[in-house]
Amino acid sequence: MQIETAETIGHAPPADYHFDIAIVGAGPVGLALAGWLAKRSATSRLSVALIDAREPGAASADPRAIAVSHGSRAMLESSLGFPADATPIKRIHVSQRGQFGRTLIDHDEHGLPALGYVVRYGSLVTTLAQTVSKTGVHWFAETTASTPLHDHDGVTLPIHSATGDRTIRARILVNAEGGLYKEADTSSALSADTKNTRDYGQTAIVGTVSVSSPQPGVAWERFTPEGPIALLPCGGARQADYALVWCCEPEEAARRSQLPDDAFLAELGAAFGERLGRFTRIAGRAMFPLGLNALNALVDRRTVAIGNAAQTLHPVAGQGLNLGLRDAQALCDALSTNGPTTVALSLFAQRRALDRRMTIGATDTLARLFTIDFPPLAALRGLALSALECVPRVKTVLARQMMFGQRR
């Protein structure tokens, strides 16, 4: 694999590059797609370019924790590898603060070693990047892309680096850049008015917390009147550590972000309850607003969006990355089987429709339904959670959707 950076390109590069597929964005989804395509290139003979604004090792120290389902791990591990420091989730406990009703999802019910895994973003990107670096993918690092130009045969993409401007020619352009389409970049190829959007009126506070009475391997989804609180085991050797996602009103999130650690932990304990004892430590506090942004159409001519470029979801149930990885695998299947054509993109869009609709709909419903502070509705939610324990078949269907999505 050739990696070009501002330091290694030199002063007289070729004016144009020609590829079958150009991928903008070297996050987990873009890297997975590049790696899968490269692994199949021996038979499909596809040439692949990967363009990213960062240098390849920039994300290695990123401490953010992300949830990877068992299905996603299986897809990655079989051909691209998976971080050795991942923490397994063997049970998920879902409940309402101050209300009756709860449901438990256990790995033994599904005959799996774990329901999912908590991995550090930097570890996952590093693992995937190391695999991609050993393939024939041409990596344009420290390079940005701007508005693409379509014609009958492909896409012309202007790219920019410290050594100057040039163009890439590709038969198919993939946006995996990790954000929805903005003005004057590769994203403008898809119309902004084709999006399904919702402002949840919430901000997520994230960080790593420690507790006095940990329950190893158990993830918690605790719904409160303000919004859900998720605690994901991420301790490794320190089994008392959990990745925190605390969804609350923006004003409260801003206030809590400024609190001293002791005061913050006291408020978190009051909101979550005492199931894990006391909260004893908080590190890496940050916050971000929550909303739904999903493209209704993944394909426009020879440009396709996947991952967060196609949809950003509420973090409840941790489905964003997993949905994006299924996008990447389905696109790899379509391009490898049918070639880099508009027919392949049309088949990809058709095959992704059901999984996207169900996952986006379920996440959106959970995010809204469990944040309405209305006592009769809280009672109905409690009944629903309890009913899942009495109807194992329904619970299994829901759990497998979250772990594997809808495959076609």
Number of domains: 2
Structural class, please? alpha/beta
Helix content: 25-40%
CATH architecture of the largest domain: 3-Layer(bba) Sandwich
Number of discrete helical segments: 10
Number of beta-strand segments: 21
Strand content: 25-35%
Q: Please compute the radius of gyration using only Cα atoms.
A: 22 Å
Q: Unreliable stretches, pLDDT < 50, 5 or more residues? A: 5-15, 179-192
Q: By CATH's scheme, which homologous superfamily of the largest domain applies? A: FAD/NAD(P)-binding domain
CATH class of the largest domain: Alpha Beta
Largest sheet: 10 strands, mixed
CATH fold-level topology of the largest domain: FAD/NAD(P)-binding domain
**Average predicted local confidence, pLDDT:** 88
Descriptive notes:
The protein is of the alpha/beta class and 408 residues long. It folds into 2 domains: 2-62 and 124-196 and 293-369, FAD/NAD(P)-binding domain (3-Layer(bba) Sandwich), CATH 3.50.50.60; 66-123 and 200-291, D-Amino Acid Oxidase, Chain A, domain 2 (2-Layer Sandwich). 32% of the residues lie in helices and 31% in strands. It contains 10 helices and 21 strands. It has helices at 28-39, 41-44, 70-77, 121-132, 250-257, 261-272, 320-338, 342-369, 375-390, 392-404, and strands spanning 2-4, 16-24, 48-51, 65-69, 87-89, 91-96, 102-106, 116-120, 138-140, 144-145, 149-150, 155-161, 164-175, 195-211, 218-223, 228-233, 241-248, 279-295, 299-300, 303-305, 311-312. The strands form 3 sheets. Strands 1, 2, 3, 9, 10, 11, 12, 13, 19 and 20 form a 10-stranded mixed β-sheet that branches. The chain has an 8-stranded mixed β-sheet with strand order 7-6-15-16-17-14-18-21. A hairpin with a 7-residue loop joins strand 16 (228-233) and strand 17. Helix 1 packs parallel to helix 4 (121-132). The longest helix is centred in the C-terminal third of the chain and has 28 residues, at 342-369. The two termini are 32 Å apart.
